[in-house]
Each structure stands twice: as C-alpha cells, then as structure tokens.
Known about the structure:
Elements: E1 2-7, H1 21-32, E2 34-39, E3 49-52, E4 57-62, E5 75-81, E6 94-95, E7 108-113, E8 121-129, E9 142-145, E10 148-151, E11 164-165, E12 177-183, E13 187-195, E14 200-209, E15 212-218, E16 231-239, E17 242-250
Antiparallel strand pairs: 1-2, 3-4, 4-7, 5-6, 5-8, 8-9, 10-15, 11-12, 12-15, 13-14, 13-16, 16-17
Amino acid sequence: MKMKVCFFGVDAFRASEATMVMPMRTATLFLTAIAVVLFLPIVGFFYASAHAATNSLTITWTAPGNDSMTGTASLYDIRYSTIPLSVSNWASATQVNGEPLPRLAGSTESFTIQGLSPGVTYFVAIKTSDAAGNWSGISNITSATTSIVLGTDDEGTNTPSDFQLHQNYPNPFNPNTTIEFSIPRDEHVQIVIFNIIGERVITLMSDYLAAGHHQVSWNGIDLYGRSVASGIYLYSLEAGSGVWTRKMTLLK
C-alpha cells in the first residue's frame, strides 16, 4: 500500500511573546491540517455489465488501475451467486476459475462464466488487487438470466416462420415472470427491460441463438442488483433489423 501524507504548511512557532495564545491556536491548525491519502485500486468507479446465454454469462468491465485509475492492477477476484452479492456474503459466493490478468487502466475487458444452469438469474461482481496485495471493495453488482431453449426438431417442422415476442406470464407478476420468444433463423438476440419512460433497467440476454423457441425469466431486479418498484415495464426483442416490444406490470 502506498501512503502519501500531505502537510499544509503552518508556522506554529513564530508567534510574538506578547500573544501567548497564538502558538496553541496555530499548533492546533497544524495538526488538523494533516491529510492522509491512501492509494488503493478503485473498483467502485468502473461499471460492469453482464449478458447471458443458455449455459453461460459474459461480464464486461473497464479495467481499473494500480493507483486509482492509472497503471495496471495485479489480480481480479470474480464471483457470482444466485442471490444479490454483498460484503457479508462475498466469501460464500462462487469464485470463477481462470480470471484474466488486469489490463491497462481504462481498457475494456470481458470474461465468460461457463457451466451455468438455464433459466437462472446470476449476480456477478469483481474485486481487484494492487501490486502491494491490497484488495478493493466490491464493484457494482450486475446480473443476467440464462435462457431456456424450448426446442426445435431436426427437420425444422417446429421452426417459427417469423420473429415473435409473446406476452409474459404471469402478468401482472411479483416478482418473477417468464418471457417467451421465437426466431425463424440463427440470429443475435437481445431481450431488454425498460421502465415506462424508456430507461434501460436490465439486459436479460444478449447472445447468438439458434432458430427456434426460447424463453428467459426476470425476477424484478435491475442491473445493479436492486429490486425495482411496482409499475408498468416494457420488454423488447431486438433481433436482426427489427425490434418488438410489449408491456408488463409488476405489482407488489
């Protein structure tokens, strides 16, 4: 750990003999004007996001530095859980294998977590260590839900003829709901939740899928791992050059 101690210059000993109270007052100012600056890797300043496929989840983030946002950090600790992560449950979360080495501060990095269960919401966060072995706090908590493939057959008789976004069920819901959609060909697909004023709440899926019928679930959690308020939400299927949108209602 690097420590920088900054002294703000105050002359505590040049008071006149006629004003004996001044040295005490000035000395007090001198002591209270000591600032300690600790240089630790700062993870809370970068944003991590996650996109899920059927059995995997890809997290993307901006690399922090060794000292604040400069240089290169030393190690990452990437963990995930099926419940929102926090300081209290960090130790019990699952640590991934083969974390990448940090790149230069400001670089975009990504990592794919494999072997996940379909139809499950996972929460992911990162810690990072500097060259002296000091670990940062937890980054923002991001989440994504792995998808479920409902099926196609080898002869294509069950392959949809067009893109379709079905009404979620149940609707209204609290807090879990399922979104089914169909794609007529292999395509990159995004399922995104928005609030009623069009702000993105969470990206449930962003992946290349085979033609067929698919589903993904949402548990009312935003991309920071927070429960959202009751209200009307929009969900969209973005595939090819088209976007399909429907409404759903969360009632608590």
